[in-house]
């Protein structure tokens, strides 16, 4: 999670919402890392999770990442939860809850829907304090 937090800090430097993501393979090797780049790319889908999934798929030469785990600093939104499911990621570890925009433990609870074809094991609250502090600081500076 520390690498994901580093990616979130880098996102702040780009003026992005501080969310970072890392994908590791079954051996624990990092295969992808990313931070939000929605403003940089002018792309509303350039969330850290989606960018990391794209990198991992390219690095591994596979559309399914079934032996991989995703670490992300904020509860994924519904779009990212869908991408996680389609990528067949094995486990999802996330830091801070997102009561407004989250799609895992909040909102539509994507993985709980009967139409969800793949549900990763989900572990919440990993590095939560550090992730939440980054977000609070970022939005406080914007106000």
TrEMBL record:
One Pfam family in the UniProt entry: MafB19-deam
What does the record give as cofactor?
Answer: Zn(2+)
Q: Does the keyword Amino-acid biosynthesis apply?
A: no
Q: Which UniProt keywords apply?
A: Hydrolase, Metal-binding, tRNA processing, Zinc
**If you read the UniProt record, what top EC class would you report for this enzyme, in one word?**
hydrolase
List the Gene3D superfamilies. Answer: Cytidine Deaminase, domain 2 (3.40.140.10)
Q: What is its EC number?
A: 3.5.4.33
Q: Which residues form the active site?
A: 49
Q: What residues does Zn(2+) bind to?
A: 47, 77, 80
Molecular function (Gene Ontology), one example: zinc ion binding
* Cofactor notes: Binds 1 zinc ion per subunit.
* Catalytic activity from the UniProt record: adenosine(34) in tRNA + H2O + H(+) = inosine(34) in tRNA + NH4(+)
Q: Name one GO biological process term.
A: tRNA wobble adenosine to inosine editing
Q: Where is the CMP/dCMP-type deaminase domain?
A: 1-105
How this chain assembles, per its entry, is: Homodimer.
Q: What does this protein do?
A: Catalyzes the deamination of adenosine to inosine at the wobble position 34 of tRNA(Arg2).
Q: Which family does it belong to?
A: Belongs to the cytidine and deoxycytidylate deaminase family. ADAT2 subfamily.
Record protein name field: tRNA-specific adenosine deaminase
Q: Which organism is it from?
A: Ferrovibrio terrae
Which gene name belongs to this protein?
tadA
